[in-house]
Specification:
about 400 residues; alpha+beta; four-stranded mixed β-sheet; 23 strands; about 25% strand; globular
Length: about 400
C-alpha cells in the first residue's frame, strides 16, 4: 500500500490549486492527486467558458467576493509567466430597461466593495468600447475581465506539479474508505490527510467521511453556440444584467482566448451528474435522486425553480436561444451560429433543508479530511487564493 502525507481526490482546477498550495507550504510532503478520468480537468474545469471574472457579482460577505479579484490577478500572472494564451478583452454588462439600471448600480457597489475595477458608462461610451453593443442608457464596464484556455492552464499546472514531485494517478476511481485508507479501482492508498475536490461527486465522497449531509448535488447543463461567420462582430464579452437571486449569469457573448465568439450558457436542469449527452454517464440511481429533488423544487417552486426550469428548457430551441443574445447587440447573423461546443455540467450544491441553491463556496472537514463541496463559478478565477485558504484554514 502506498502512503502519502496528502491525497487529493480530483484533478480539476481546485485539486491542482490545492496541490500547488500544499507544495508551497510543505515542500517535502508526499502528495498524490487521483482522478477517475484518464487526464486532468475532464469535467467543469475543462469545459467552462474560460472567462476570468472581475468580482462584481458577489455579496461582500462571501468567499467569492474575497477571492475573485485576487484570483484573477494571480491567474493572469501565472498564464503570462508560462507563456500561455490570454485575451484581455474586457466585459460590458448591458441593461434592457429602467429596472435593470438599478441592478447595474447594485453591481457597481458590489464591485467597488470587492476591489474590482468597474465603472458605469453611458450608451455612447459603451458603443465606443464595443460598437455593436445595445444597452438602455448605461452599461457596467469591466476592463479587467479576460479569457484564457482552461485546459491549457490545467495541463500546465499538472506539469509544474509533477516537476515539483507531486504524483498523479489517473483512471483511479474512488470506491470507499476505511479510516484514511482510500479504496480505489487501482488498489488502496493511505494518507495522513485527504482533500476531497471531486466536483460533481464531492458531496458523495464527503458523506463517506461524515460530512455534507445537509447538501446534495443538483446538476445543471451548460451549452454554448459558436458563431462561425467571423470573429469581428463582437470584440468584448457582453453580458445581461443577471437575476441576483440565482447563481446563473444568463445567456451572454463570450470572446474566447482565440478571439472566437460564442453565446451561452444554458443552465438546464440535468437528469444525472454527468448527463452531457443522451446516455453518457447514465446512472439510474443518480437519475432517481436528482429527479426526486428537482421534482420537489418544481412542486414547491423554491427560489422560483419552476419558472427557471421552463425558461431554461426553452433554450433547447436554437432560434429562441439566439434571440436572447441578439437583443444585446445591434446586428448579428442568426445563421452564423452553427456549432454547439462541448457541454459542461455545473456541480451546483442544494441545501436540502432550506431548498436553496448554495451561492458561495462551501468547505467542511476535520483533522483527517477536508471537503470542497461547492466549487462553482467563479471557482476557476478564484482557484489560487481559494486553494491557499483551504490549505491554511483547514489542512495545515
Amino acid at each position: 500500500m502506498k502512503k502519502y502525507d496528502f491525497i487529493i481526490i480530483g484533478s480539476g482546477i481546485i485539486g491542482l490549486g490545492v496541490a500547488l498550495a500544499l507544495k508551497d507550504r510543505k515542500e517535502q510532503s508526499r502528495i498524490l492527486v487521483m482522478d477517475k478520468e484518464a487526464a486532468e480537468a475532464q469535467h467543469a474545469s475543462g469545459r467552462n467558458s474560460g472567462v476570468l471574472h472581475a468580482g462584481f457579482y458577489y455579496t461582500a460577505d462571501s468567499l467569492k467576493a474575497r477571492f475573485t479579484v485576487e484570483g484573477s490577478r494571480a491567474m493572469k500572472a501565472y498564464v503570462k509567466s508560462r507563456g500561455l494564451k490570454i485575451n484581455e478583452c474586457g466585459k460590458l454588462v448591458v441593461a434592457q430597461n429602467e429596472h435593470e439600471l438599478g441592478q447595474l448600480d447594485e453591481l457597481l457597489q458590489r464591485g467597488k466593495h470587492n476591489g474590482s475595477n468597474v465603472r458605469l458608462v453611458d450608451e455612447a461610451e459603451a458603443c465606443r468600447i464595443e460598437p455593436n453593443v445595445r444597452t438602455f442608457k448605461r452599461a457596467l464596464y469591466s476592463p479587467d475581465t479576460a479569457s484564457i484556455d482552461p485546459k491549457e492552464v490545467c495541463a500546465s499546472l499538472k506539469n509544474d506539479l509533477q516537476r515539483s514531485g507531486v504524483e498523479f494517478s489517473f483512471d483511479t476511481k474512488y470506491l470507499g474508505r476505511s479510516s484514511n485508507i482510500l479504496q480505489t479501482t487501482k488498489g488502496d492508498f493511505e494518507a495522513g490527510k485527504i482533500i476531497n475536490a471531486a466536483g460533481l461527486y464531492a458531496d458523495r465522497v464527503a458523506r463517506d467521511f461524515g460530512f455534507g449531509f445537509k447538501y446534495t448535488m443538483v446538476p445543471f447543463k451548460g451549452l454554448y453556440l459558436k458563431y462561425t461567420s467571423n470573429k469581428t462582430d463582437v470584440t468584448t464579452n457582453i453580458y445581461p444584467v443577471p437575476n441576483l437571486k440565482n447563481p446563473f449569469l444568463g445567456v451572454h457573448y463570450t470572446k474566447t482566448v482565440t478571439g472566437d465568439i460564442k453565446i451561452g450558457p444554458t443552465a438546464i436542469p440535468a437528469f444525472w451528474r454527468e448527463n452531457y449527452g443522451a446516455a453518457s454517464g447514465f446512472s439510474a440511481q443518480e437519475m432517481a435522486e436528482v429527479l426526486f429533488f428537482e421534482s420537489k423544487l418544481y412542486l414547491t417552486n423554491a427560489f422560483n425553480f419552476r419558472s427557471l426550469a421552463h425558461e431554461e428548457m426553452r433554450k433547447y430551441n436554437k432560434e429562441y436561444f439566439i434571440s436572447l443574445a441578439a437583443s444585446m447587440v445591434r446586428h448579428i447573423d442568426p445563421q452564423g451560429f452553427t456549432e454547439w461546443t462541448k457541454p459542461g455540467i455545473r456541480a451546483q450544491l442544494l441545501d436540502k433543508q432550506e431548498l436553496k441553491l448554495v451561492q458561495d463556496f462551501v468547505v467542511e472537514g476535520d483533522h483527517k479530511s477536508i471537503h470542497v463541496l461547492n466549487a462553482v463559478s467563479p471557482a476557476f478565477t478564484c482557484a489560487f487564493p481559494f486553494a491557499r485558504y483551504v490549505v491554511d484554514q483547514y489542512v495545515i
